[in-house]
Specification:
- A hairpin with a 5-residue loop joins strand 45 and strand 46.
- The two termini are 39 Å apart.
- This protein is mainly beta and 666 residues long.
- The longest helix is centred in the last third of the chain and has 8 residues.
- The chain is elongated and about 115 Å long.
- It folds into 4 domains: 109 residues, Sandwich (Immunoglobulin-like), CATH 2.60.40; 188 residues, Sandwich (Immunoglobulin-like), CATH 2.60.40; 115 residues, Immunoglobulin-like (Sandwich); 214 residues, no CATH class.
- It is 3% helix and 56% strand.
Length: 666
């Protein structure tokens, strides 16, 4: 029986609604061991679970949790149903590096497109002669799945109901008592939690001897947008149905009219927006007045002046895909969409594809480069014997053309164009490498990020004299040679790894990796090696050598090589011919089934690790799906067979770990 109540949760989310669903669940922790430190959750990235409070009940101690949706993540999900198991994991005080299963609940997220409220009709006209009874109310249908409410901006509107839930029909009427002869307009707003519609109501109060005379103006509210400092483009029509002669006028110089009056009939008044070139950014309100013997009616015109801009990217910029970089667009065109034409240079050729997105309230924000994880292919190398520079991969190069278009038309207009946008995988190292000073992660020259660390190599490490080291970095320009200063007993000498040894390379290649084999220097215990590059500095203290060491080699989130030297025991055993393995990607555990040609298990003991920074580097192996073990002249591609680092000894900052792997030759 599940300790969660409820143990099955269903949430429904309408994309971009601004109304993420939330609920609660209670976890019975009465059976939780006394040495439990805290509870964590393994969950999908679109879900948030946090503790509200604790509660003593007849059934024991209860933890109450709030369960909610991350809007940004859910907005990027395709429409559909997503069912996931959320695991509650226990971390114990005496074993803080491991977590253990306690219980779980199931959540289903139903992702749907936003459904706007439906209101019919949205235009109503009433008329009566002065002194007559009020006309009968009219039915208005409301279609929605949510709670709704109605409010009017005029007190002569009557409503049979002002709120409700779900589909309904209400009666909308008018109360002309006390109103003099004239034409009156009201806006009745019908809204639910996600959208709204306006009912435009016109009331004609006629004199007792006027007969069946009226003036109807439709629409009475017009919204247009124009780009700042550009010639205006907006135009439209106002339909005037009148039984008496009318005069037309406006006090707004930016509204141009093609007529100043009409005889009785159904007339079309054409208008344009003009003289806006010097307008500041903002919203302006004007009126078109229709004047007759029955009174004055008005059509309100709302003008928005916006700055048509494209922001978020610069030509030749360098971007990390997991930063979810956004291209921001504004556009004054009504009923507009943006069409993005991508041309992406990859290792295997050119990928060409288009994306189409409508503007909402004259704005769009579009994520660019998230497909990098599928398109980028690294050159993963496990050759460690020679000190050298090498290129770990070729970044993706984007050419992006941004077009504006009117929906349903073929009227493409080139808005902007970006060349040589460079994309790599992972997040900005400034967000990831928090145990380093920012000056050790990024170096800015003339306002640009000219040098960026792409390595978890600590600034201080303890290693044997046969260890291998590696680090990687981004350099806008050709990097300098790597300098190696060695103090070996009473002998001091310098060495270097020259960038010229790399040979020629494409100018778009800006990622560089370095391999250093300490076995080349015949170092003694107590020697000190100082490694200096443009962005990475590392001091290596040579410790007492043991038997032949083992190297763990893996690909970090930037597709660059990490190496960890283990001086503990190494063991390999045969096993069954099929199995599964797990790794973490996007905060989610991925499980894959494999069939093996030569099934084998490995167990590697790190021996004592002296610094927290070295432990932090090793922990990054948990999120890698590309791992190798090097033992002497043998290199094995493996799969991680552990969920967390298992500490076998803890004394101050000195730790060691037993790590298990499976052979991945499939």
């Amino acid at each position: 029986m599940s300790k969660f109540n409820p143990s099955n949760i269903v949430l429904r989310y309408e994309k971009n609604s601004g109304n993420p669903p939330t609920t609660t669940t209670a976890l019975n922790v009465e059976s939780l061991p006394s040495n439990a430190d805290r509870i964590t959750f393994r969950k999908p990235q679109w879900l948030n679970v946090y503790k509200l409070n604790e509660q003593n009940t007849e059934d024991g101690l209860i933890y109450n949790y709030r369960v909610s949706i991350f809007e940004n993540a859910a907005n990027n999900l395709p429409v559909g149903d997503y069912t996931e198991t959320v695991e509650a994991r226990v971390i114990y005080e005496d074993d803080p590096d491991r977590d253990f299963p306690y219980d779980s609940f199931t959540i289903t997220l139903e992702v749907r497109e936003i459904i706007e409220i439906g209101v019919n009709p949205q235009q109503l006209a009433f008329s009566l002669e002065l002194g007559d009874p009020n006309p009968n109310p009219r039915p208005v249908s409301i279609v929605t799945e949510n709670n709704w409410s109605i409010v009017s901006d005029q007190n002569w509107i009557t409503l049979s109901n002002t709120n409700g839930n779900g589909n309904d029909t209400i009666q909308l009427g008018v109360n002309a008592d006390g109103l003099p002869v004239g034409t009156y307009n009201a806006n009745v707003l019908v809204s639910d939690s996600q959208s709204s519609k306006t009912i435009n109501v016109t009331l004609h109060v006629k004199s007792a001897n006027s007969g069946n005379q009226y003036v109807i103006v439709n629409p009475d509210l017009i919204e247009v947008s124009e780009n700042q400092n550009e010639d205006p483009q907006s135009k439209g029509q106002i339909i005037i149905e009148n039984t008496v002669d009318v005069e037309i006028e406006t006090e707004s110089s930016w509204i141009g009219l093609d007529a100043d009056g009409f005889s009785s009939g159904i007339n079309v008044l054409n208008f344009i927006i003009q003289n806006t070139n010097n307008f500041t950014l903002g919203t302006f309100t004007g009126e078109v007045k229709v004047i007759s013997s029955l009174g004055v009616q008005k059509a309100m015109v709302i003008l928005k002046i916006i700055n048509p801009e494209t922001s978020g990217f610069v030509n030749g910029g360098f971007y990390f895909a997991k930063d979810y970089n956004k291209l921001n667009l504004t556009n004054a065109q009504n009923n507009a969409e943006a069409i993005l034409k991508h041309r992406v240079q990859t290792l295997n050729g050119v990928e060409i594809y288009d994306r189409k997105t409508p503007f909402f309230q004259n704005q769009i924000s579009i994520e660019i480069g998230v497909e990098t994880i599928n398109l980028l292919r690294p050159f993963f190398s496990t050759s460690l014997e020679v000190n050298r520079f090498f290129i770990p991969f070729k970044p993706l190069t984007y050419r992006l053309q941004v077009y504006n278009n009117v929906i349903g038309e073929n009227s493409l207009f080139l808005n902007n164009e970006f060349e040589n946008l460079i994309f790599v995988n992972g997040e900005s190292p400034e967000k990831v490498l928090r145990n380093f000073e920012i000056s050790d992660v990024v170096k800015n020259i003339n306002g640009s990020r000219n040098l960026i660390r792409l390595s978890h190599l600590p600034k201080v490490i303890y290693a044997e004299n046969n260890a291998y080291l590696s680090f990687s970095f981004y350099s806008l320009d050709t990097p300098s040679d790597v300098t190696i200063r060695i103090s070996n007993g009473s002998v001091e000498f310098n060495d270097s790894i020259r960038i010229s040894g790399l040979g020629s390379y494409d100018s778009s290649t800006r990622i560089f990796s370095v391999i250093l084999n300490l076995n080349n220097y015949n170092l003694e215990e107590g020697s000190v090696v100082n490694i200096t590059s443009d962005i990475i500095n590392c001091k290596v203290f040579i410790k007492k050598p043991s038997a032949e060491s083992t190297q763990l080699i893996w690909q970090n989130q930037w597709n660059c090589i990490e190496i960890f030297n283990c001086s503990g025991t190494f063991r390999k055993v045969d096993r069954s011919e099929s199995d599964s393995a797990e790794y973490v990607q996007d905060n989610k555990t991925i499980s894959e089934e494999f069939n093996f040609k030569n099934p084998m298990d490995f167990e590697v003991n790190t021996a004592t690790i002296y610094t927290e920074e070295e432990v932090d580097q090793l922990k990054t192996i948990q999120s890698s799906s590309e791992i190798f073990i090097k033992k002497g002249n043998q290199t094995y591609k493996v799969l991680k067979d552990f969920r967390s680092l298992q500490t076998y000894e803890t004394r101050n900052f000195e730790k060691g770990f037993n790590l298990k792997f499976k052979l991945a030759e499939v």
